[in-house]
From TrEMBL:
Domain of life: Bacteria
Gene Ontology MF terms in the entry: decaprenyl-N-acetyl-alpha-D-glucosaminyl-pyrophosphate:dTDP-alpha-L-rhamnose rhamnosyltransferase activity
Cross-referenced Pfam families: Glyco_tranf_2_3 (PF13641)
Protein name: Glycosyl transferase family 2
Enzyme class name: transferase
PANTHER family in the record: RHAMNOSYLTRANSFERASE WBBL (PTHR43179:SF7)
Protein EC: 2.4.1.289
Keywords (A to Z) from UniProt: Glycosyltransferase, Transferase
SUPFAM superfamilies noted in UniProt: Nucleotide-diphospho-sugar transferases (SSF53448)
InterPro entries: Nucleotide-diphossugar_trans (IPR029044)
Length: 300
């Protein structure tokens, strides 16, 4: 088996159907399998998959286990030389999978490959090539200095604005919306950290993989469309909470011993303040009926 594709679904029946069609409607020169892990959807997703995509290996959970646990369930069953984590709100464009596999085969030092991710408005999803969110990088990002000085390596170190979107580059992390990982890497560093319910698990995985000596590559020759925000109009309280909890978990796990008490205090205080502000803003948006175009990983 060359490739195992894993999709986590949670009440995104039409988006998941679109994603599966974008895979199965193409012909390939490699052997692959597709897993869909359903986190107790109530929108008919399971019946749709059984009826329209009987070739899918369907895992039905009786509760929402989150993104990390759901993916790990399929990873343990997957037989592919490479494992692809793919969001349920994406469309795989022509030759994306073939090009990614060929590039990984030609470069055995690469542990993780991410493709170019295009949003529905045609712009780049900057999460597809990122630096790690160190306190310094996060500060510049919050102050939007990356937008004022996009060509600066210092100010653009989180979303790597100084790197060309059209060139292959080694990066710190790629998005879990499309993350192709070498099976041997997973055997070495382990699966996704299940402490992360949603958000942050892709950054954490990339951090561990890079720490183990593997390269993480942004490969723009392969492309997908990401309908980011299409699956939810308003963020639920749990989504806002889990996003900020992931920030806390990542810092505590990887940076807690690297910085002094003053820096750590500022970081954790900043996360708490941001959580409070985001919660209040989200409540006002719900009352006002405005659409929220936030990250769609609540579909996990």
């Amino acid at each position: 088996m060359d490739l195992s594709i894993i999709i986590v679904n949670y009440n995104t029946i039409e988006l998941t159907k679109q994603t599966l069609h974008s895979i199965f409607d193409k012909k390939y020169n490699f052997i692959y399998e597709v897993f869909v892990v359903d986190n107790a959807s109530t929108d008919g997703s399971v019946d749709m998959i059984k009826t329209e995509f009987p070739q899918v290996q369907l895992i039905e959970n009786n509760q929402n286990l989150g993104f990390s646990k759901a993916n790990n369930l399929a990873i343990t069953l997957a037989e592919g030389k490479y494992i692809l984590l793919l969001n349920s709100d994406t469309v795989v464009l022509e030759d994306c999978l073939s090009k990614s596999l060929s590039y990984l085969d030609a470069h055995p030092e690469i542990g993780v490959l991410g493709c170019q991710v295009i949003l529905k408005n045609g712009q780049l999803d900057h999460a597809c090539k990122r630096g790690f969110p160190t306190p310094e990088a996060s500060l510049y990002y919050i102050l939007k200095l990356n937008k004022l000085f996009p060509n600066s390596k210092r100010f653009g170190q989180y979303d790597l604005t100084y790197l060309s979107d059209q060139e292959v580059n080694q990066v710190d992390a790629v998005t879990g919306a499309f993350m192709m990982v070498r099976r041997g890497v997973i055997d070495e560093v382990g699966g996704l950290d299940e402490d992360f319910f949603m958000y942050g698990e892709d950054l954490d995985w990339c951090y561990r993989i890079k720490k183990a000596g593997w390269k993480i590559i942004y490969y723009p020759e392969a492309k997908i469309i990401h309908y980011k925000g299409a699956s939810n109009k308003k963020k639920k309280v749990k989504i806002v909470y889990e996003f900020h909890r992931a920030m806390y978990l990542f810092y505590k796990k990887h940076y807690n011993e690297k910085y002094n008490a003053f820096v750590k205090g500022l970081v954790y205080m900043g996360i708490g303040i941001k959580l409070a502000i985001s919660t209040v803003v989200n409540l006002f948006k719900k009352r006002g009926g405005h659409d929220d175009q936030g990250k769609p990983k609540d579909t996990k």
